[in-house]
Amino acid sequence: AVSNATRSLRKVVEMQPDHLFSHLLLAKIYIGQGLHNLAQSALEEASRVQPAHWQTHMMRLHVLRQLHMLHGPEAQASHNVVCARVHEACVQAGLAQAASLICSRQGQLRLDPVVPD
Hints:
By secondary structure, this protein is an all-alpha fold. Helices cover 64% and strands 0% of the residues. It has helices at residues 2-15, 20-32, 36-49, 54-66, 76-92, 99-102. Helix 1 (2-15) runs antiparallel to helix 2 and helix 4 packs across helix 5 (76-92).
């Protein structure tokens, strides 16, 4: 069943390369199968289609972590997009100070939780 879904999604992205959610679903399937290099490729395409889609970048950071590339330069754009969204959400919730607990000043997600004094 998964191979049929994967095959169908590959056809969809071939015929409609700008269909964001097909790329995302394909990436999710690849992640579930442990095929992180293929997931990264699908997420790169999703990012090309909609560069500011923060969920794409969140998934991309997950994949880069699995590939031991989370701290590399290829991850910075995704860190920036996700941290901007985190900051925006915290401000909207009236918790602007909480953003610094989740993202560093350099605009990277914190991997270790920060416990406020």
